[in-house]
Specification:
By secondary structure, the chain is mainly alpha-helical. The protein is built from seven helices and four strands, in the order H-H-H-E-E-E-E-H-H-H-H.
């Protein structure tokens, strides 16, 4: 029996310190919801999860860009639907103006409406979406993933000759009405092509948008497996270390009291 060196107390203190550290780490994991509280918990897992988190952020940004591009195209088509109705009416007026039972005075009334609708079509060509021209014909490169790849979305130009020739026509005479009808039919054909182009872009971007949504979900699942704590498992671990700390504290107290038995020998 010795006094200066209490082996049992030293071992008890060491084990209690280790249990306390594990209890503290378990508590941190439960309170933070993450099983990687500090880099030493899982250095490789931390590195992978950081890259995945960055990819998720980029994917979310790309998804927002695609969604905005879809909104842009849908706005284009909304305007073009109204342009289609205007051109339909203009073609109708061009046919009405060719009625041999109508006088030029009657045709002037048709022409007033025809010119007004043409001005409407010309005005639509100047419309913008968040400061970006809808109908300047420019191709737009839409970012479709987090790596910077793009999709070339074809533009629509309502200022080309097919439209301006139709909108500048008149139906003031029978001959002019016949020419106007030809021009408006050409504009309708061009508009049909433009709407089909926009529809194809929306379809393509919609698939991309869905793909990015799925990718974001799978990346989230992957990073969750790496860094999110399993509460049920960690709660069991916490209970174990909590008991070890309490038992270790009690045993350390017992170990520290053992040298007092020497006093009996000395008495």
């Amino acid at each position: 029996m010795v006094i200066n060196t209490n082996i049992a107390s030293s071992q008890g203190a060491r084990l209690l310190s280790e249990s306390s550290a594990m209890l503290s780490k378990s508590l941190s994991r439960l309170s933070s919801g993450s099983k990687i509280v500090s880099p030493e918990d899982d250095a490789a897992g931390l590195a992978v999860s950081m890259r995945l988190d960055a990819q998720i952020s980029r994917t979310t940004a790309a998804k927002n860009n695609v969604t905005n591009a879809i909104s842009f195209s849908q706005t284009q088509d909304g305007f073009m639907q109204k342009v289609a109705k205007a051109l339909d009416r203009m073609s109708e007026l061009a046919v009405l103006a060719q009625d041999v039972t109508k006088s030029d005075a009657d045709r002037s009334l048709y022409n007033a409406e025809f010119a007004t609708l043409g001005a409407y079509v010309d005005n639509v060509a100047t419309k913008e979406f968040n400061g970006v021209s809808l109908f300047n014909g420019a191709t737009m490169n839409v970012s479709i993933d987090g790596e910077g790849n793009t999709f070339a979305m074809s533009g629509v130009d309502l200022t080309i000759a097919a439209y301006t020739t139709a909108t500048s026509s008149t139906v003031s005479t029978t001959a002019a009405a016949a020419t106007a009808l030809t021009n408006v039919k050409a504009a309708i054909t061009q508009l049909a092509t433009n709407r089909a182009t926009v529809g194809a872009s929306v379809s393509r971007l919609s698939f991309t948008n869905e793909q990015l949504g799925v990718l974001r979900e799978t990346l989230g699942t992957a990073t969750s497996r790496i860094k999110d704590v399993d509460v049920a498992e960690e709660s069991t671990r916490f209970a174990r270390f909590n008991i070890l700390v309490q038992a270790g504290t009690a045993m350390l107290a017992q170990a520290n009291s053992q040298p007092q038995a020497v006093l009996r020998l000395l008495g």
